[in-house]
Design a protein that fits this description.
The protein is α+β, with helices and mostly antiparallel strands. It contains 4 helices and 3 strands.
């Protein structure tokens, strides 16, 4: 007769573990790298959201301070300083940082010698979730805001 050749059977038992043992732990390396990339994107997105929120809050606080001064809160330098300090305090932890500055000034736009507009400016550094080397690329290492509000006068 003729011999029929059968394909070899897969290794079973201790021999099988020895043959395939060279691939052990390969999935852990790929999974770890993938997880680190996922965290990088997650923290990058979190930094963008916090930066946008900080910009919005700073813009609102500067506008409110300028509106308060223009609506009769006082346009003399001492009153403007007090209102600006209140505005910084309303920013909470971000306002207590030395890098956060809110300033107000009265501007004479028509040249008659009387102030017409309260101009507010604000600058702050939002909280960081990514290293500065990466966060600088996102554009939120410092946020700025400004507002101009006409002074209300009775005619």
């Amino acid at each position: 007769g003729h011999l029929i050749r059968r394909p070899p059977r897969p290794a079973v038992g201790p021999r099988a573990r020895r043959v395939r043992g060279g691939d052990r732990g390969v999935g852990v390396v790929g999974t770890s790298i993938g997880f680190l990339v996922f965290l990088l994107f997650l923290y990058g997105a979190l930094q963008v959201v916090i930066g946008l929120y900080a910009t919005s809050v700073l813009r609102a606080v500067v506008h409110d301070a300028a509106a308060r001064a223009a609506a009769g809160g006082g346009t003399d330098p001492a009153s403007l300083e007090r209102i600006a300090a209140d505005a910084e305090a309303s920013l909470g932890a971000m306002g207590r940082r030395p890098s956060t500055v809110v300033s107000l000034e009265v501007v004479d736009e028509d040249g008659d010698g009387v102030g017409d507009v309260v101009v507010g400016r604000g600058r702050a550094v939002p909280p960081r979730f990514v290293p500065p080397s990466i966060g600088g690329m996102l554009g939120f290492e410092e946020v700025r805001a400004g507002a101009r509000v006409r002074i209300e006068r009775v005619r």
